[in-house]
Task: inverse folding
């Protein structure tokens, strides 16, 4: 199935900022390393997986996130999986 | 003949583990951080003297006291647990004698966990609808604390010990809908009680290496939280869709979704994915924790007490987890 859904990185950044209470708006950018989010831990990994799943219908695996550093990397993985 | 749930009772051991208690053992977290992480305020913990079948026994005695079910009318008992008394004989048979039930009954064990309630309910319906018995007593007892390593924060902060009893009886009205079942053993090692039975019995080396944890005599539960999370996020929405289809219903027809109370983040993520309104979701983790096969009976019992389930309500129940194993149906009140 082909999904014609235009996703922008700004949209993902906005959603991530909304998701984490401790992150102020405007702090995140494509080069920001998500693991630098304050108090980053296993719970944050689950929150990101759930966010991407419900908003983009893409179920990331744990290793997808382990291999991801910046938001730009994360965006790339989501896009790749959406095309599949 | 159709089947209906006539009564639910549960038993909780008296020992309570608060977030404050956990924060003393795990000083890297404060009590409020533990609440924020888990959504759980208290867990219950039993002792080696009161194991799963004892808690099931207490719940059953309460059910006989509280309901019209006469012990002589019981046709079948199904005991669900991941902590059987012995490898043999079946614990359900021992419970027959202990509860003073007639000897002309069926008695079987079902060693399932998080999907145990919904599987046992399906079995009860099979027994009743096939005319093999009119009154089925489902018994539940789980003791995750026995297999949680004292240093394992993820397990210690999540799980509770509990027991329950559920009376299923014949009925003219269809009260228990059509079932969906699933099993996928490829996920067995992602939630697993290591060194716990015939395949890998505990040995001296195990006892020595766990001398700081009383030997971990019952084995040790090991959870790959990430895998369990992604399994739940993928499988449960499919399970819900399949249950609805099999019962000719849509999401809007359901008044309450009672999922196995796996964890707060799993339930929140499922709710978000399925766009379930807050008032239609059952969350009973805060005061009970994850009680394995007892979590749905507790959630159902509490929702009924709170008036969230009324005559005419349609309640979707779905169990999922260790195995992997999953099942569910719709209850018509």
Result:
């Amino acid at each position: 199935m082909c999904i014609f859904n235009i996703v922008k990185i700004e949209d993902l950044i906005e959603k991530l900022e909304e998701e984490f209470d401790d992150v102020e708006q405007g702090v995140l950018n494509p080069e920001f390393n998500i693991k630098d989010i304050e108090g980053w831990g296993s719970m944050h990994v689950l929150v990101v997986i759930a966010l991407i799943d419900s908003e983009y219908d893409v179920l990331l695996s744990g290793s997808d996130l382990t291999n991801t550093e910046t938001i730009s990397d994360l965006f790339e993985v989501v896009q790749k999986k959406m095309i599949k | 003949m159709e089947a209906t749930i006539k009564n639910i009772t549960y038993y909780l051991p008296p020992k309570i583990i608060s977030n404050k208690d956990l924060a003393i053992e795990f000083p890297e977290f404060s009590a409020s951080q533990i609440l924020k992480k888990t959504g759980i305020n208290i867990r219950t913990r039993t002792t080696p003297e009161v194991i799963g079948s004892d808690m099931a026994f207490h719940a059953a005695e309460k059910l006989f006291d509280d309901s019209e079910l006469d012990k002589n009318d019981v046709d079948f008992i199904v005991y669900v647990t991941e902590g059987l008394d012995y490898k043999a004989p079946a614990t359900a048979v021992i419970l027959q004698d202990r509860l003073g039930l007639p000897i002309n009954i069926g008695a079987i064990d079902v060693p399932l966990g998080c999907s145990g309630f919904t599987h046992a309910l399906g079995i009860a319906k099979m027994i009743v609808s096939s005319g093999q018995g009119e009154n089925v007593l489902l018994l539940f007892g789980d003791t995750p604390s026995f297999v949680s390593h004292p240093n394992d924060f993820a397990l210690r902060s999540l799980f509770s010990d509990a027991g329950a009893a559920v009376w299923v009886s014949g009925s003219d009205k269809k009260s228990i809908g059509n079932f969906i079942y699933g099993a996928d053993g490829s996920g067995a090692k992602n939630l697993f009680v290591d060194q716990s039975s015939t395949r890998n019995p505990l040995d001296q080396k195990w006892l020595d290496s766990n001398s700081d944890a009383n030997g971990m005599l019952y084995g040790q539960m090991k959870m790959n939280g990430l895998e369990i999370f992604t399994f739940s996020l993928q499988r449960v929405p499919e399970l819900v869709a399949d249950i609805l289809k099999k019962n000719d219903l849509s999401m809007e027809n359901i008044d309450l979704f009672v999922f196995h109370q796996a964890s707060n983040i799993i339930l929140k993520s499922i709710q978000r994915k399925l766009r379930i309104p807050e008032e239609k979701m059952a969350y009973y983790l805060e005061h009970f924790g994850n009680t394995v096969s007892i979590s749905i009976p507790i959630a159902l019992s509490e929702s009924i007490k709170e008036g969230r389930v009324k005559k005419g309500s349609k309640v979707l129940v779905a169990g999922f987890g260790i195995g992997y194993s999953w099942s569910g149906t719709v209850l018509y009140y």
Summary: The mean pLDDT of chain B is 97.
